[in-house]
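Quick one before lunch.
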Amino acid sequence: MKKKTLRKLPHPVLIGLMGCGKSSIGRRLSKKLKMPLVDLDDVIVEQAGMSIPDIFARDGEEHFRDLESVALANHIGQRVILASGGGVVLRKLNRKILKEHPPVIWLKASPEFIAARIAGDANRPLIANQDALSRLTALAEERYPLYKECADLVIDRENMDKDDITDKIIKYLKKKAKAQ
Ligand code: S3P
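Model of the shikimate-3-phosphate complex:
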């Protein structure tokens, strides 16, 4: 892709349930678009100096959400690909910020698809020690409307492979750049 085209591309924000592939698709996009990837979970872990399960265990979910909101506000709008945590849409202010910074891209996948991918992952406090599928079903029920509210583009994560998804997102970004 030409440098001039690359420079004009809008900066995508990836949203969706945990385990839907935000980080891995973010990495692919980052490589192809030569745009840095910022993973908000990594930013939070670095700033807190501890893992996400430890933040939840020591300070609770609300404190984690505070850190998440600060990380979002600090990084949105920069020339980066932003991979968010699955719960970033829970707070109204975060949703407002997301909607003000298109394009927001929802990688949509069912609880069944995700449960099969993240079974036994100790790094996900919201499903630790619980029946992953029923917990994810409850999270999906609560969050799908919120993802929908924020998304400019919805990607069917389940029926496409990661390369096709990456290409589809790039095509969309180019179309948006042309329309500017
Ligand atoms: C969370 C998802 C995680 C992480 C934290 C909370 C959530 O991020 O932010 O464990 O509320 O769904 P990923 O979606 O990157 O796994």
